[in-house]
Amino acid sequence: MALLTDRLDATALAAELDEKGFVCIENAIDPAWIRRAQAYVHGLVEEKGKRYFALNWLSRDRGTPPQELTDDPQMRRLLAQLAQIGCPRAKLEEEIYTGLRVVAGRSGDEKSLLHHYDKHVITALAPILIPEGPKGRAGELIVFPNRRGYRRFALVNIVEKAIVQSKWYRNRVSRKLAAGDQANVKYLKPGNLYLFWGYRTFHANFPVAGDAVRATMLLHYGDPHPSSLILKANTVRQIRDERRIAEKATA
User: Of 59, 179, 231, 243, which residue is least crowded by CB atoms under 10 Å?
Assistant: First the structure.
């Protein structure tokens, strides 16, 4: 199994997420899985080049580290319990939405400091490769936890995200960070598992130095707006755009 513990109390973790907004479960992931995942990422970087790329639904590739982590029974149970506690009306899908984000080279700067809210109730983050520095150039995670509640209507969610994910608003947040507001900066470590309410948490990552590689595995679960055709269409568009970036990297 990829997770080393089966004693995670979802109720206690949900309470901590409500109170603090961000939870680190130290040494939760098997070091052997980390080594396999790092080798897997290095292989992808060699294939696609040292630049930014994002790959989704890798959990469908049997025998790969993403599939091992996503299909771990403890992981599936934990995310399902947290999603149900966090937003009882959310749809608990059969599949966990997964993404591998690799930030490397100068192109990675374009995908950094893009603060956003996730579509799903709970987000679990498993660091795979994390640069040691320099500060502000090591892909540090930035979180502003529990900034909003669940919107009743998907359209309200869409309009709200359009505003706070605009270039103007993101630049405003970046200037605040540059002025010395570091309380929301999180330093990640491979082997730890990090949790936050993705739908409610405004988050991004700092850029990565051109000679470094940052790779994280993200697991998202629980759909607060399962009947929204607009959100489904947007997800399809996002996946298409990310696939285009990945294909361009191999050209």
Answer: 179
* Cα 8 to Cα 6: distance, rounded to the nearest angstrom: 6
Say if residue 236's pLDDT is above 60. no
Q: Is 175 part of any domain?
A: yes
Confidence of residue 249 (pLDDT cuts 50, 70, 90): very low
**Count of positions (residues) in the chain:** 251
Q: Give the predicted TM-score (pTM) of the model.
A: 0.88
Q: Of 50, 64, 95, nearest to 2 (Cα)?
A: 64
Q: How confident is the model at residue 250 (pLDDT cuts 50, 70, 90)?
A: very low
Parent domain of 191:
10-250
224 belongs to a structural domain: yes
Report the CATH number that the domain containing residue 194 is assigned in CATH. 2.60.120.620
For residue 124, what are the β-bridge partners? 195, 219
* Domain count for the chain: 1
Determine the average pLDDT of the residues in 204-223. Answer: 92
As a whole number of angstroms, the distance between CA 101 and CA 214 comes to 8
In a domain, 2, yes or no: no
Report which DSSP code applies to 109.
G
Residues 6+ apart with CB under 8 A from 136: 206, 207
Q: Is residue 72 part of a domain?
A: yes
Using an 8 Å Cβ cutoff, are 49 and 105 in contact? yes
